[in-house]
Amino acid sequence: xEFFYLFCIGTLFGSFxxxxxxxxxxxxxxxxxxxxxxxxxxxxxxxxxxxxISFITLVGRCRYCKFAIPWTYPFTExxxxxxxxxxxAILRNQSxxxxxxxxxxxxxxxxxxxxxxxxxxxxxxQYGVIPDSLVLILALGGISFSFFNPYVESLWWRSAxxxxxxxxxxxxxxxxxxxxxxxxxxxxxxxxxxxxxGFLFGWKGVLSxxxxxxxxxSVVSILLIITHKIHKDSAVPFGPFLALGSVSGLFI
Length: 252
Fold this sequence. Notes:
Layout: H1 2-26, H2 53-57, H3 72-91, H4 96-122, H5 132-145, H6 156-179, H7 188-226, H8 239-246
């Protein structure tokens, strides 16, 4: 039953993620007003705002204007629920405090990756946005958690070393791309995010994150080019790949 409860909690966080993505793009407050239909602007009652269940009972449409609810809403809720399950399965031998801390920090990573992807499509695939505020929360969380974080052996200086390694390495990659290949290899948002991930996983974990995220990003980009979904010079948001690659840091 603990897996079921954890999945339900994850979908609640996923529901908030949907609100965050929409309001970030619309430059709206994240706390006011209460949830509303983006089409008719009618406030959404609490019983119409239950993750997954409300989408099913409403048959995927607004109760008032019958506007079709985007499939991305339940998908995000399911994805966040699965994220919580996967993290718990990996970390179940850790203390409750460690598990809760990682669930929260990975949710921040989830928000960062999702925002990068959503804004990428909002700008017609020109660029994605990685919010500095979320990166700062992740970095401060990684530093504060370092005293109890088994992945940096509960040593703050290992956390600091990881942050410095991630930032300097990613900044070097960005410089090489600019000076040698005359193109942006990494955005500044990506550089900051990699540095923040270094605080959480240490230098070994951040190296693993960069390797696997680069590998996945390259494979996906090549497939998109081959299938003519993008051009070879098209921008591809790296944040989602960094989020996926960061999971590898839990196995170092």
